[in-house]
Amino acid sequence: MNPTTFVLFGATGDLAKRKIYPALYHLFLNGKLPEAFSLIGLGRRSLSDATFQAHVKQSLYDFYRFEVKEDQTLQAFLSLFGFNILNIDKQEDFVQLKGRVEAWEQGHEGLVNRLFYLSVGPEFFGTISSQIENSGLGEVTGWKRLVIEKPFGHDLASARVLNAQLSEAFAEEEIYRIDHYLGKPMVQRLEALQQANPVIQALWNNRYIANVQITADETVGVEERAGYYDHVGAVRDMFQNHMLQLLMMLAIQVPQNSTTAENVRLKKKKVLEAIEPLQRQDVATRIVRGQYAAGTLHGTPVQGYTSEPGIAEDSINDTFIAAKLNIDNYYWRGVPFYIRTGKRLKSKHTRMVVEFKDPIKSLGSTQQSITPNLLIFDIGPDEGITLQLNTKDHEHQGGFKPVNIDLYPDRTEAPEAYETLINDALIGDSTFFVHWDEVELSWKWVQPILEAFAENEVPLHPYPAGSHGPAAANEMLAQDGYRWWFDE
Ligand code: BG6
Asked: What's the 120 CA to ligand 1 centre distance in angstroms?
């Protein structure tokens, strides 16, 4: 790869320290960074290069997932880092930054690349990208790329405004929008599983599948993020992005001949386009909104949402959301996709369960039904793929009993989401990044929910901390004759 400068806005922030530096270090150790590589960290306070390097080093000690060795390799890595003070409102700061980047580039041969990573609040994205454009920092002989993190807007209108701003400085192919769920190894495996297995391909449709359940439960509450979370809620924080991405990744028909980024993203877009739109008047019946009340989590009493520091006593913010979606296409018509996510639930897990049709029930027989076959994807914190089948039960005449087959016994150390994503951004593979079309379509789908929630047109179900969420989320499935799996 040609000489590359990694320009990092928000270099002393939390994400940089927890995720970006450890990921870059891992890529460096594995020979995956460009041979000529330089990172310029930017922040509002002045730091010397040496102090910045010490900060990066400390973050490796605190957050790298393997042992950090104090050796020449570590020194070589840290020597790639420099720091510049920058006020995003001052064009002269960008001009000065450009001078520093160019000075480094002049010492290297070949076309030069610049990757701009915005590890800052989304309210700064527009200003930064205009400054990059106006200062000439965006003029490169090689490639330039922009990496940003969600949230991409607050609703449909603000997402469009933001995108219009970014588009003035960067073409769509140059924008890499991170949704860290797309970096999770199990999510990335879904595509290969479908592509390489005719057995899965053959079953991946409404002839065999009864319903799909996607759950992302968290035990944490609002933590120290009251200011952010109380304006966002589960619908914007998790549902509009991570949950809909999981749905797309599960429901796409992976193109057999070519899994280029373009093809995969096109297929994902087709899934989103096929989701039956939700009308505002149906939100109250199709969506379950919940908020955690006081309860007990693993034996410890915890307070309710409205007693958390920084949260108003009368907040109606959603900390839980469950929804039923129908994908109206040839493959999925008639298969409900149930989604739920929330904070302060019983355990932390992200899981997708594909429930197959009960062959006995489908034939209309009055015989006792059997446990359905399930294909279970555990995405995190523990990974796994399990297939639940039925076998003969020797103890009960004519009976069956379910058996689990572990399809993923080879648990080699999986890469961290950010290692994969930063590497992909450097090599220009956008398969696991979010295209603007996906952002726009997903905001479009949730827009009626945002409006109905804001106007308080939907019941707000309290649920005790440490539970599985409000009973209304169970009723949603019970009405269709199903239940959430693994809630015991
Ligand atoms: C983030 C949300 O995007 O995802 C957080 O802002 C949430 O509220 C987190 O806790 C969950 O991510 P993970 O990887 O722990 O499931």
From this structure: 17
Which of 179, 241, 242 has most ligand 1 atoms within 8 Å of CB, for mutation? 242
251 among annotated binding-site residues: no
Residue 237 assigned as binding residue? yes
Contacts of 259 (CB under 8 A, 6+ apart): 191, 195, 431
Token pair for residue 121? 């609040």
Nearest CA to ligand 1 atom 9: 238
Ligand 1 in reach of 149 Cβ (< 6 A): no
**Residue pair 42/77 in contact by the 8 Å Cβ criterion:** no
- Give the pLDDT band (50/70/90) at residue 364: low
pLDDT in tens, 314-330: 999 999 999 999 999 99
- Is 74 in contact with 57 (CB distance < 8 Å)? yes
- Whether residue 365 is predicted with pLDDT greater than 60 in this model: the reply is no
**Order of strands, edge to edge, in the sheet holding 287-293?**
399-406, 384-393, 374-380, 349-356, 209-217, 336-342, 320-326, 287-293, 460-464
Radius of gyration of the chain (CA): 24
pTM more than 0.90: yes
Peptide bond into 277 cis (omega under 30): no
| Residue percentage of the chain with pLDDT more than 70 | 97
pLDDT tens track for 373-382: 999 999 999 8
